[in-house]
Amino acid sequence: MVCSTERLSKEIAVEDRLSRVFAALADPIRRDMVARLAVADATVNELAEPYAVTVQAVSKHLKVLEDAGLVSRSRQAQRRPVHLEAEVFDLMTKWIERYRREAEQRYQRLDAVLAQMAREDQMAREDPQDDRNVRGGEAS
After folding, report:
1. For the segment 61-80, what is each residue's pLDDT rounded down to a tens digit?
2. What is the separation, in whole angstroms, between the first and last Cα of the chain?
3. CA dihedral 82, 86, 92, 95 (to 10 degrees)
4. Which residues contact 27 (CB under 8 A, 6 or more apart)?
5. Which of 73, 92, 106 is nearest to 23 (CA)?
6. Distances (CA, A) of 76 to 46, 65, 79, 129
7. What is the DSSP string of 59-124?
8. What gap in Å lies between CA 40 and CA 33, rounded to an integer?
9. What is the C-alpha to C-alpha distance for residues 38 and 121, in angstroms, rounded to an integer?
10. Quick one: pLDDT at residue 49?
11. In sequence order, what are the residues at sequence separation of 6 or more whose Cβ sits closer than 8 angstroms to the Cβ of residue 116?
12. This prediction's pTM
C-alpha cells in the first residue's frame, strides 16, 4: 500500500511538472525562445530582439519557462545568459513515447482484426456453400 501510494505521488508530481511544461510551451513566443535557446544560450536582450514586445514582457515569458524547468539563468561576469535545460525534454519525450507506443499497439490490433475480416471475406467468396448463406438462402 505504501509503495503504490508513493508511486502514485511520484506519477502525480511528474504529471504536474508536465502540465507546467506543456502550459509554458503553449505560447508561440515561448516556443520560439526555446527553439532559439536550443541553438545557443542568449541574454534577455538578445532574446527580446525579434519580438515586438518589451524586455519586461520577455522576462515574464522567461519566468514561465524557468518555473516549468525549461530554462535556467546563470551569471557570467556582467552577462546573465539563459540556458535551455534539455533534461525536461527527456521527461516530455518519455511521456509522449509511452502514449505513442500504446496508440501503435492499438493500431496493430486493429490491423490484425481487419486482416482477419478480409481473410474471412475472401474465404466466404471462395466457398460456394458459404456464399449461399451470405446471400440469405438455403439451396432446396
Report:
1. 999 999 999 999 987 667 78
2. 67
3. -160
4. 61, 64
5. 92
6. 15, 20, 5, 84
7. HHHHHHHHHTTSEEE--BTTB--EEE-THHHHHHHHHHHHHHHHHHHHHHHHHHHHHHHHHHHHHH
8. 11
9. 53
10. 92
11. none
12. 0.63
